[in-house]
Design goal:
274 residues, alpha/beta, two-stranded antiparallel ribbon, 11 strands, globular, binds ligand C2E, binds calcium ion
Length: 274
């Protein structure tokens, strides 16, 4: 059953309560209401492709798009996040394995991991199982974690991250600067790169303080031996600033909107040779 109800403003929202929402996510997967789009990332200087971030999309049966900012937090309230998380991981890894077979090398896929997924004692087994099933090499998978997730991390979750890192999966700290920022977190977690949140990137050209933060985060990342990716890059000016600050990679509408699998082929065909 389409377990939806009308909210005060008339929009349809699936029930988040209890196991009802997990059931709703299971239905959505079966009916192919859920899909992934992939947003390219590129080298700031050469514009060479460096990977894709997988982003979830949910189209309700009446055509309404439910944004991930809405359904991911709803899923996180219960068990649904584990269904959604596993489906996302499996779908993204299968897509990345297809890209490899099509000769698109150097295109790892980044998957967002919810803080709640770190509490799952079966996480490492599930991730390694997905890699084995899809045939994707571990180095072609990146997991994006938020600061808040890592700040509140239990010892078991840290063990899980070390295990994933040891298996060759790459870990990235997402939305850097927006969470419960703790520089100590950077020393505790085995991440290989930081993503600078788009709020700083987008304010950078107009606002000296935002520019100083972006510049300092790039310097901090490099001093710690980490890579750094700027998200939400929309203009050529922003790219010029990132070049001046020696940021490594960028992601945003300037390069490309998130793409469907078909859109990726067009995007790659339309790019000039390296
Ligand atoms: P995020 O991880 O920070 O992802 C980046 C968001 O910025 C995406 O929004 C992307 O579409 C958007 N974006 C990319 N380039 C630009 C740009 O140039 N300008 C602007 N204004 N926005 C840009 P989206 O797809 O709506 O996702 C929102 C958030 O939902 C993500 O933020 C992530 O936290 C979460 N999310 C999405 N898919 C998943 C998922 O499969 N699992 C989990 N756990 N979270 C997800
Ligand atoms: Ca992300
Ligand atoms: Ca962000
Ligand atoms: Ca995020």
């Amino acid at each position: 059953m389409a377990n939806t109800h009308a909210t005060a403003n008339g929009s349809k929202t699936p029930e988040a309560s209890g196991s009802g929402f997990a059931e709703r996510v299971r239905d959505a997967i079966e009916r192919r209401e859920l899909s992934l789009v992939y947003q390219p990332q590129a080298d700031v200087f050469t514009n060479r492709l460096t990977g894709f971030e997988a982003l979830s999309r949910w189209r309700l049966s009446d055509g309404t798009m439910l944004p991930p900012d809405v359904f991911v937090p709803m899923a996180e309230q219960g068990e649904a996040i584990h269904l959604l998380g596993e489906w996302t991981l499996r779908t993204a890894c299968a897509a990345a394995a297809d890209w490899l077979r099509a000769g698109i090398t150097d295109a790892p896929v980044s998957v967002n991991l919810s803080a709640r997924q770190l509490d799952d004692p079966g996480l490492v087994r599930k991730v390694l199982g997905v890699l084995a099933d899809t045939g994707l090499p571990a180095a072609n998978l990146k997991l994006e974690l938020t600061e808040t997730a890592l700040f509140s991390q239990a010892a078991e979750a840290r063990e899980a991250l070390l295990h994933l890192r040891g298996a060759g999966i790459r870990l990235v700290l997402d939305d850097f600067g927006t969470g419960w920022s703790s520089l100590a977190t950077l020393r505790r977690v085995p991440v290989e790169a930081l993503k600078i949140d788009k709020q700083f990137v987008q304010a950078m050209v107009e606002d000296r303080d935002a520019a100083a933060i972006v510049q300092a985060v790039v310097a901090l990342a490099h001093a710690l031996g980490l890579g750094v990716v700027a998200e939400g890059v929309e203009t050529p000016e922003q790219r010029t600033y990132l070049q001046a600050y020696r940021c490594d990679a960028l992601q945003g509408y300037w390069l490309s909107r998130p793409l469907t699998t078909d859109g990726i082929a067009d995007f790659l065909a339309g790019r000039p040779p390296l």
